[in-house]
Amino acid sequence: MTHELLTIGRISVDIYPNDIGVDLEDVTSFGKYLGGSPSNVAVAAARHGRRTAVITRTGDDAFGKYLHRELRKFNVDDSFVTAVKEWPTAVTFCAIKPPEDFPLYFYGRFPTAPDLQIKAEELDLDAIREAGIFWSTVTGLCQEPSRTAQLTAHEARPRTGLKEGQFTILDLDYRPMFWASEEEAREQVARILPHVTVAIGNDKECAVAVGEGTPDEQADRLLAAGVEIAVVKLGPEGVMAKTRTERVVSAPVPVETVNGLGAGDSFGGAFCHGLLSGWPLAQVLDFANAAGALVASRLSCADAMPTPDEVTGLLADRGRLLPGTYATEGAAL
Fold it and tell me: How far apart are CA 222 and CA 192, in angstroms?
């Protein structure tokens, strides 16, 4: 089976507090969820009806079994998810203090984590080569053997070898606790960018990748590196996407924020859905922006990923739905 979206990288068990607005030390009960950005992106796209899979590794433990079960529950192919005996499944705690404070606490990732033990020789390069979209992250470049595995995957999927409608996306998700320095991260990003057709990041992530500057300057540097679509998140001003011939901005979609942690992953899955649907870039961006806003208004990440009807419903409520624009082959959303 050819996957419409194949992601690679981090997976974890997310432990989210049921007590909202308090510090972690004061939380009395928690809920358990599938987590890890590339895994959440695969879930998000699957909620839009896409055939998705994730390449990752868990511990050989009960939490690993739980993550397999959750992926299957969300209709994400888990056949590329294998166990590592030496390291436990990673766990991520957070505090939820809306509207803007959502600190993360990573456990089981130091000195390494199972998903950083993805090995190049174990990759299904045919599946990577044939996928409609291949999605990787900067975090996956922070350590060996994952670093070489991601480079090998990208080398198997050169830009010049992509078919029409295929995309290779790099999520510029720089997390400083996983790196010795920004310079080290920038060096590794530079090795991957020649293989990438779409890069997505916020101001800080783009600065690590290609240097400080305005959003337009950062987007232009990504385009100069060979990227075909540069997506720069503008925080309270929305999100911009730029190609060599087009610049579009999607304004923020106002919602009451409950937990902002999964918004970017929901954006990513919806963005992939829009690209695969062949929509105009402006509509891809609006749809993804609304999908991210919906998850920001909910507690969890994977379990909160919206359906197409929910996204188009929010856009309609905000007066931003263009009739007929969001139709996909074989169905009208």
Answer: 12
CA 170 to chain centroid: 9
pLDDT of 323 > 70? The answer is: no
Structural domain includes residue 214: yes
Angle between helices 308-317 and 281-296 (to 10 degrees): 100
- Whether 300 is in a domain gets the answer yes
Query: What pLDDT is stored for residue 300 in this prediction?
Result: 85
CATH code at 283? Answer: 3.40.1190.20
Res 258: pLDDT: 87
Q: Give kind and range of the element (H or E) at residue 168.
A: strand 167-171
Distance CA 325, CA 306 (A): 18
Please tell me the total count of domains within the chain: 1
Is the pLDDT confidence value at 331 over 80?
no
- Please report whether residue 264 resides in a domain: yes
Q: Which residues of 189-227 are buried (b: 16+ CB within 10 A; e: fewer)?
A: beebbebbbbbbbbbebbbbbbeeeebeebbbbbbebeb
Under a CB-based contact definition with an 8 Å cutoff, are residues 172 and 189 in contact? yes
Q: How many residues does the chain have?
A: 333
Q: What is the pLDDT of residues 136-186, one digit of tens each?
A: 999 999 999 999 999 999 999 999 899 999 999 999 999 999 999 999 999
HEC per residue, 71-114 = HHHCCEECCCEEEECCCCCCEEEECCECCCECCEEEECCCCCCH
Residue 259: inside a domain: yes
Write down the pTM of the prediction. 0.95
Range of the domain at 229: 5-317
| pLDDT-above-90 percentage for the chain | 84
DSSP string for residues in 115-131: GG---GGG--HHHHHH-
Burial of 325 (0-12, 13-18, 19+ CB in 10 A): middle
Stated as kind and residue range, the H or E segment containing 183 is helix 182-192
For residues 123 and 282, give the distance between their C-alpha atoms in angstroms, rounded to a whole number. 35
